[in-house]
Design brief:
The structure is a homodimer. Chain A is mostly beta strands. Chain A has strands spanning 2-4, 12-13, 20-28, 37-49, 59-65, 67-72, 75-80, 84-87, 93-96, 104-111. Chain A is 0% helix and 54% strand. Chains A and B meet through strand 1, strand 5, strand 8 and strand 10 of A and strand 1, strand 5, strand 8 and strand 10 of B.
Chain lengths: 115, 115
């Protein structure tokens, strides 16, 4: 059993090449004994973005706050608070905060071996 | 790639014994080709609750809206919007909406073989 929230969860700057003004928190991970899946949370400041990148595992995303774009190799999509997104393995993707005042905050679920 | 939200996701009554005034939605699951994990969402009306039950897989939970109690064999805990909860395999658990006016809405992540 673990109960936490973002105020209690340390935040670090996302330092992957191409990331602009993104912080990362990990409320649930292998360090909590989670058996198969982990929850990261990314906070993308207004005008910021995650890298346009791909990897061989999926994301299960949920928008906690804000709005922006999900850019992929096949097009770009508007996402907003309350949206759920499944990014498949090897699908190139990038989240962009297109808002000028509100941070875009996204849960990013990944297999536990990556977190 | 899938992008959806709760307005677009069918809701069914949770009919497990012990469930009171709970509806269930499944925004991301094996039917979407999700490789390892699924997202259910439970909406527990004021005064309602999920069953006090256990199973051999975990939950990764996030409170989208509302507040209530997470009851376990070892005690009960207040949970509120923005909280993340890890319920381990075989841990007996129940969510209770203790509010009188606002539904308690919770993401419930489970291994994809269960959804």
């Amino acid at each position: 059993m673990k109960i936490t929230n973002l105020e209690k969860t340390p935040a670090t700057r996302m330092n992957m090449k191409g990331a602009i003004n993104v912080t990362r928190q990990i409320p649930i991970s292998s360090r909590d004994g989670s058996p198969s899946f982990a929850f990261r949370v990314f906070t993308i400041e207004p005008g910021g973005n995650t890298p346009f990148h791909q990897h061989h595992y999926e994301h299960l995303n949920y928008v906690i706050q804000g709005s922006g774009k999900l850019k992929t190799a096949s097009g770009e999509y508007t996402v907003t608070r309350g949206d759920f997104m499944l990014v498949q393995p090897n699908e190139t993707h990038q989240y962009v905060n297109t808002d000028t005042s509100t941070s875009l905050v996204i849960i990013c679920g990944v297999p536990v071996e990556y977190e």
